[in-house]
# Entry
Amino acid sequence: MPSWSPCSMPEVLELTDHDPLVRGTRGAGRGPAWRSGDGRAVAFTGYDAEGRVRSLVGLGPRDETAELVSAVHGELPEDVRVIVPRGTPLELTQPSDWNFRAAFGAPPPQPAEAAVAWCDDEDAVRDLLTLVSPGTSAWPGDPKVRRWAGIRRNGRLLACLADTSAADGVGHVSAIAVHTEARGRGLGPSITAWAMRRFFAEARDVVTLGVYADNAVGLRMYDRLGFTVDRALTTGLVKRAG
# Structure
């Protein structure tokens, strides 16, 4: 008998106590999901904004998560990346370590929040990201971006942020960037705090984001803004036999 079985997303949500990562994963309810025999590990699929399978997310104790992901990932396209707790004993190629952060309450006031507004100047956003964050996960024109926020001074865009929320009740931010000439002025925490307040005002009960594990400055900033959930994860491709 297998030590895992297919299950539904409502069951995954129940087993994970409605984890914000599970709740906010784009398209999680439209694809397959699985659980370990004792229910301590779960796996489910995420989708991109164009409806293609993007990821296999595995959560739970590391050994059980590795066993479950190894058992089911062969049922998915070969190029689907897995997301698992850091240290899960899987042989991954192209691994990337990052932290999932979540906040359930409004942040402390930040110095430049009054300068933030929704921004429809995608050319300026693209120029800023190209300059300071060319490896960002969201760009103007990306269908997963709902809207952009920005801070302008003297007609120049000095900071930006993408709203990439994908599920009801969960706000998600991406592509937070500050011009090199404007760093040290609190623009990063200010644009993030402003977006958090907008999400909570829109009846979202949690705000989430991802940050690379080696971004110590970002991790400290999110601590100060009240991101109390801090989960260490790794994304990569599972090596297939043969």
Notes: The mean pLDDT is 96.
